[in-house]
Amino acid sequence: MEDDVLQKILILGASGLVGKALIEEIKDVCDLYGTYFSSSVTNLPKDKHFKLDVHEVSKLKELIHFINPDAIVSCLRGDFDRQLEFHKELASELENSKSRVYYFSTANVFDGDYSRHHSETDEPFAESEYGKFKINCENALKEKLNHRAVIIRIPAIWGKNSPRMNSIKESIENNQIIDVYRDLECNNLLDTQLAKQLRFIIENQLTGTFHLGAVDMMAHGEFFEKIVNAISPGKSILKFNSLSETGNTLYWGLTSNRNDIPDFLQSTNQDIISCLLSQ
Ligand SMILES: NC(=O)c1ccc[n+]([C@@H]2O[C@H](COP(=O)([O-])OP(=O)(O)OC[C@H]3O[C@@H](n4cnc5c(N)ncnc54)[C@H](OP(=O)(O)O)[C@@H]3O)[C@@H](O)[C@H]2O)c1
C-alpha cells in the first residue's frame, strides 16, 4: 500500500459470503465502502454502506463519483443480463480513471470441458448460461480496463457459517439426502483464505487472471463425506451419483501456473475441511 494513505475500496456485494469475509480481512488497513441488496448485514459503518440493485446503473455512477475509489471489488449476484450491463457500465465509468476492478468469476467458465483441470492460461469454454455470462463479464471489463481488470476465478467457497455448511448441518438434522458426485474431481476454498489471498493481490497490486483454490483436488463426494462423517459419524445421507455418461472421471479443478501467491496463503482440501470442523 502507498505510504500511510489508506486505499479506498468499494465492495459491490459487501453483504454476501465473499464480501463479508473480505471486510473482516481488510477493514483495518483500507478505507472501506460497500453495497448490499436485501440484507444490510456487514461490518461497515452506516455512512459507508449503500443499498444498490444491479438495475441502478446511475446510482453506481453516483457512488463512484462520491467515493472515488482506488479499487472496486465485484462480488455481486443477480440477473445475468442486468449484471453484464452493469459491469459494462462500470468499465466505461472507470475507463479514464486509475481505479482497478477485482472481478469474482468462477470455475464454471470451464464447464464445457471436463477433460482436464484448467489453469489461467487456458481459454475459457463454458456450457452453462452461468459460465457463459461470467466469461462475458470478464471480457467486458478487460476490454475497457485492460490490466486494471483483475479476474479472480474461484471454485466452491466454504465458510463455517456459509450457506453450503449450514445446508449440510440442516440435512443431517432433518435426515435429508444430499446429492454428490463420485466422479467429479475439483477443488474448494475457504472464505477467510480467499480474503487473505485477495488482500495479498490488492496490496501487491498484482494483475491478470488468478485461479484461487486448494492446491490439490478431491472428489466432490469425498469432500462432503469427510464433513458429514465428522459431524455425524455413521449418518448415511449422501447419495453418490455419476455425472459422466461415459464412466470417465470429470476434472473441474482450478489450477494455477502463477507463482506470485506465497505458500503460506495456500491450503489443501483437507486443510479446508479441518478448518470447517474446528471449534
Ligand atoms: N460462493 C461461491 O461458492 C462462489 C463460487 C464461484 C464464484 N462465485 C462468485 O463470487 C461472487 C460472490 O459470491 P458470494 O457467494 O459471496 O455471493 P452471495 O453470498 O450470494 O452475495 C452476493 C452479493 O450480491 C448482492 N446481490 C444479490 N442480488 C443483487 C442484485 N439484484 N443487485 C445488487 N446486489 C445483489 C447480495 O446482497 P444481499 O445479500 O444484501 O441481498 C450480496 O451482497 C459472485 O459473483 C459469485 O458468482 C461464488
Write structural notes for this entry.
Helix content is 35%, strand content 20%. It is of the alpha/beta class. The strands form four sheets. The chain has a seven-stranded parallel sheet with strand order 3-2-1-4-5-6-11, with helices on both faces. Helix 2 packs parallel to helix 3, helix 3 runs parallel beside helix 4 and helix 7 packs parallel to helix 8. The radius of gyration is 19 Å and the shape is globular. The model has no long low-confidence stretch (mean pLDDT 96). The site of NADP nicotinamide-adenine-dinucleotide phosphate has 23 residues, from helix 1, strand 5 and strand 7. NADP nicotinamide-adenine-dinucleotide phosphate binds next to helix 1, strand 5 and strand 7.
Please tag this protein with its features:
single chain, 279 residues, alpha/beta, seven-stranded parallel β-sheet, three-stranded mixed β-sheet, 35% helix, binds NADP nicotinamide-adenine-dinucleotide phosphate
Helix content: 25-40%
Low-confidence stretches: none
Which small-molecule ligands are present, each listed once?
Answer: NADP nicotinamide-adenine-dinucleotide phosphate
Reading the helices and strands in chain order gives EHEEHEHEHEEHEEEHEEHEEH
Proportion in β-strands: 15-25%
What is the count of β-strands?
Answer: 14
How confident overall, as mean pLDDT? 96
Please describe the biggest sheet, giving its number of strands, its sense, and whether it closes into a barrel. 7 strands, parallel
Instruction: Measure the end-to-end span.
Output: 34 Å
Radius of gyration: 19 Å
Shape: globular
